[in-house]
Amino acid sequence: MAQRGLRTWSLLGVGSTARAVSLKSAWVVPSAVFVLPFVDEGLGNATHMFGSQESKVAAIVDPLRDVDQYLAAAEQYGVQIRYAMDTHLHNDFVSGAREIAASTGAKVIASADAGLAYDHTPLRGGESVDLAGLSITAIATPGHTPEHVAYVVSQGGSPSALFSGGALIVGGAARTDLLGKENSVPLAKQLYHSIHDQLLKLPDAVSVFPTHGAGSFCAAPATSERKTTIGRERATNPLVRAASEEEFVRRALEGLPSYPVYFGSLRTVNQQGPALLGGVPKLEPLPPKRVQELAAEGVSVLDVRPPPLFLRSHVPGAYGIWANAPLTTWAGWLIPVGTPLVLVAHGPRDLELAVRQLIRIGFDDLRGFLDGGMAAWEAAGLPVKRVPLVAAWDLAPRLRKPDAPVVLDVRQDDEWADGHIMGAVHVENGRLPWDDLPFPKDRPIVVHCHTGNRSSSGVSVLLRRGYKDVSLLDGGWAGWSSQGFPVA
Known about the structure:
Number of strands: 24
CATH superfamily of the largest domain: Ribonuclease Z/Hydroxyacylglutathione hydrolase-like
Shape: globular
């Protein structure tokens, strides 16, 4: 939701900022144009509302699906949203452009090459729309995706801002392998030319507002900053400074982390047109017996409470993914998109947070939530599952015995390479539901990540897959390594 203390960015330059005491006073910026960012730290993405302070009209670039936050800001600013714009067919979230259009009458603006199957205004490179005297021009910038465009905002013929999507981010550019490895090199070559032949033709003073940033699996920036200038990127961005197309491709494709499996589903959803929600869904409270019946019918239970509460007791067979994990990463990685879900939450705030994150990544079949939480479930006499914690000093001597448990390290590849428990098995957490696992179901398994957040969700997946004797290493790798136990 729009909050006190939001920041607007003037288009006069990267140094011109104003911190608002209230949304009304945030209008006091040294320019006739405002930019208001909405950053989702879990997705690592930024949506931007921009427009004319004088005429009180605005556009929104790359909106998420829970659009009430933008509508509330527009109402408090007293602006009318004219355009809802996407820079590309997103892999990492469901676009809110259609939702905004349905709520406000705004026009959807998108790349003509996106092939949207719903009402919109398609733009090709060089084509423009007007926003109360501001000219918004599309620049064809394929690379992150084939249909990608960036939007240049000009006032009086002079370009002021670039909404670059993933074509240019702070210190890098978004990855080009999301449409398959076979397309990664051709798209990286296109991205090189999009940057050098298109974006770097803009004046150095033009402010750049990317969609992707720190925390996004679509990009791997080295900084948490979310705005920059063309001149700064020309001078400091390693990809921009690559001496050749070949060097650019090599740098763009090296060291890319794996990404959540749901990325493979949302491009089509965004192209065909996401279902209209009409607001953030309000879930039905369900009594424990009804939740048990739905689980027996194949509906999955998703427990979004903090890991200690999940481990202490949960509905048998439930996924355990903390709402702050965040869900946009781990639900999208561990649960097949489209799975019908019943939620178990610690309270209404966690429930709303979970619902927002789930609809952002395409989980629309939300059947309700467990009324009264686990206290009501246990009071009804229904079965519970508990996961024991294993202390490092208890595990260490057990590993020297013939019947030692399997130690399963679910951290990322680079974390494993930096050090791990001797004799441990490594499977990244996101692969646990999908891979053939290299250990039998009849051996005890002790799971760990760095501290316990990821491993708790990994434990829930193993239990769903039929592994019976599963426990969690208390303190994770951080606790083990800090206490001086053997590492490899």
